[in-house]
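User: structure tokens for this one?
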Amino acid sequence: MFAIVNHLHFSKPVDDLRESVEQEGAPLLASLPGFKGFHFIKVDDTHAIVLIFWDTPADAQNGAQVFGPTWFAKNFAPYLASEQQRSAGAVLVSA
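Assistant:
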């Protein structure tokens, strides 16, 4: 399994983004090949962590090419208050 971790700082409350994530973002990701899981985590009012799990790095790359320029660009990017911090890597242990 392969994981993507995004730390996001928004210019609007994270709670205001929840509905679009639930109704559109998560279902779009779930429809993509190799998708394993998604978590949208509220850190505080304007910070969130997004965890996305894929079967392989290639699946993650494909997902980014579909999700990034479409849903993310429309629903998250306009509200980013600073650069997103992104990390990716192989999941070594999962319980």
